[in-house]
Automatic annotation (TrEMBL):
GO terms for cellular component: endoplasmic reticulum membrane. It is a multi-pass membrane protein. It comes from the Eukaryota. Residues 1-31 form the signal peptide. It comes from Salvia splendens (Scarlet sage). The chain crosses the membrane at residues 63-83, 95-116, 122-145. This is ER lumen protein-retaining receptor. It is found in: Endoplasmic reticulum membrane.
Length: 158
């Protein structure tokens, strides 16, 4: 069992639970752009379709897998832009994005681990897309860490 992948999957689950808690607590989806929800819906749909078992399933598997990887890399971008424009980030939204970023960071550790332990590990599309996604989170992580260290409300520069 790869511990990095397990921890990454668990932090992804926690991020989803935090999002559901935010929606339940506020009785609203405000702060969650519809574009992000559409992108994640397309991501999960493409993951489901890639296992459809059709005649040319090998080609479709490759296409849907690559599409889902590329989409996941940029799906958080509208959320980050919305938070940056508003300046203030509520606690649950900040934790949601933090856990999504932690999920991606553990997946990078997973790839490093697999590169050194598996023969012919060559998922370069996933690695490059993951690095792009992590770079998008880097600015947010910096301000999240500063606000946590100073015990203040998370504010992003406009």
């Amino acid at each position: 069992m790869n511990i990095f992948r397990f921890i990454g999957d668990m932090t992804h689950l926690v991020s989803i639970l935090v999002l559901l808690l935010k929606i339940y607590a506020t009785k609203s989806c405000s702060g969650q752009p519809l574009t992000v929800m559409k992108m994640y819906s397309a991501l999960f749909l493409s993951d489901l379709l890639k296992d459809s078992g059709t005649v040319c399933s090998s080609l479709l598997d490759s296409i849907f897998w690559a599409f889902s990887i590329y989409l996941e890399a940029v799906a958080i971008l509208p959320q980050l832009v919305l938070l940056q424009r508003s300046g203030n980030v509520d606690n649950l939204a900040g934790q949601y994005i933090f856990f999504l970023g932690a999920y991606r960071a553990f997946y990078i550790l997973n790839w490093i681990y697999r590169y050194f332990t598996e023969d012919h590990f060559s998922r370069w599309i996933a690695c490059v897309s993951g690095l792009v996604q992590t770079a998008l989170y880097a600015d947010f992580f910096y301000y999240y860490f500063i606000s946590w260290k100073n015990n203040s409300k998370l504010k992003l520069p406009a």
